[in-house]
Design brief:
Helix content: 25-40%
Number of strands: 9
Number of domains: 2
CATH superfamily of the largest domain: 2-enoyl-CoA Hydratase, Chain A, domain 1
Shape: globular
Distance between the termini: 109 Å
Order of helices and strands: HEEHHEHEEHEHHEHEHHEH
CATH class of the largest domain: Alpha Beta
Number of helices: 11
Strand order of the largest sheet: 3-4-5-6-7-8-9
Mean pLDDT: 88
CATH architecture of the largest domain: Alpha-Beta Complex
Low-confidence stretches: none
Largest sheet: 7 strands, mixed
Radius of gyration: 27 Å
CATH topology of the largest domain: 2-enoyl-CoA Hydratase, Chain A, domain 1
């Protein structure tokens, strides 16, 4: 009986028991409801392979796809006072910060880095919407100022990816003060004659849209991204009218002159390389791993035949 209990029964249970499947192997598209395998979704830069819907992507994953070889150097951002207003709603502000840091693995809602795209050195900054909605607090303001200072110091263009629900209410007026601070940072770039390119992703709203997100030399958006100051529902309730289809979406804003381009994520890197090099007055980038051709080592042009030279018998 012990042999059956201790060996046979566990052996049968191990063969026929249901194996547990990790929950993070599949993701559901918010737009069409298709179940997507995580590796396939990651390889496609978090874009649905069925309907083309652009899902959220972390700054590190975005930078890995943007920079040459996925290599970039992170820039340290000065840390502000953690809880200047001692704010508390359902949770204390420091507790919310710890929860967001644990969930995302990041210090704050913006990542700043340097690297090359198409062998063109740049400084890049990207907001993380999964970190408290990418809200603009003092750290985000410090990050943009640091990115601008680094770009001026290195004489590189700045490319910023925005994704935010607006200002961070836990920091009150100190959060709103980041609007003029970041505006001054953008002005530093303009005075230095350096390009400032903004890529607006879903969603970009509130004080972020009213400040650094709409001050670029070139504005590019991902497809169907919501870009606004006040949301459509708030506007409908205020004016008591039905808004047009696609109102405040990237394609609508492109048609009405608010954007320069709407570019899918898969083509964003090539688009940014071309625009950056054009603004810097550089020739088009050489694609691939080979070095650009050296004009001095080009093969000489074939000599033109001399009309006075004697002709071969078959040419006579």
């Amino acid at each position: 009986m012990n042999w059956i209990t201790n060996y046979v029964r566990p052996r049968i249970n191990s063969i026929f028991s249901r194996r547990e499947i990790p929950e993070n192997l599949w993701s559901k598209c918010d737009e069409c409801g298709t179940m997507l395998f995580h590796r396939e979704l990651t390889d496609n830069l978090n874009v649905c392979t069925s309907c083309g819907h652009h899902m959220a992507i972390t700054p590190r994953a975005r930078f890995s796809a943007l920079f040459d070889g996925g290599a970039f150097a992170e820039i340290e951002v000065p840390a502000p006072n953690l809880d200047p207003l001692h704010f508390r709603d359902q949770k204390k502000y420091p507790d919310r910060m710890k929860a967001a840091q644990k969930a995302t693995g990041e210090k704050e809602a913006m990542l700043v880095a340097t690297g090359d795209i198409g062998r063109t050195p740049i400084v890049a900054a990207a907001q993380d919407f999964s970190f408290m909605g990418g809200s603009m607090g003092m750290y985000v303001g410090n990050a943009i100022i640091k990115a601008a200072e680094e770009a001026v110091h290195l004489k590189r263009p700045l490319i910023l990816f925005s994704a935010a629900g607006g200002a961070r209410m836990q920091e009150g007026i100190l959060s709103l003060m980041q609007m003029p601070r970041t505006t001054v940072a953008v002005q530093m770039l303009k005075e230095a004659g350096l390009p400032y390119i903004v890529v607006l992703t879903h969603p970009t709203t509130g004080g972020v849209t009213a400040s650094y997100a709409m001050l670029g030399d070139v504005h590019i958006a991902e497809p169907n991204a919501l870009i606004c100051f006040a949301g459509p529902r708030v506007i409908e309730q205020t004016i008591r009218e039905k808004l047009p289809d696609g109102f405040q979406r990237a394609e609508y804003l492109l048609d009405h002159g608010m954007l320069d381009r709407v570019t899918p994520r898969a083509r964003m890197r090539d688009e940014l390389i071309g625009i950056t090099r054009m603004l810097l007055g550089l020739p088009p980038a050489v694609m691939g791993d080979l070095p650009p051709p050296d004009p001095s080592r080009a093969a000489p042009a074939p000599l033109e035949p001399d009309p006075a030279a004697p002709k071969a018998p078959d040419e006579a």
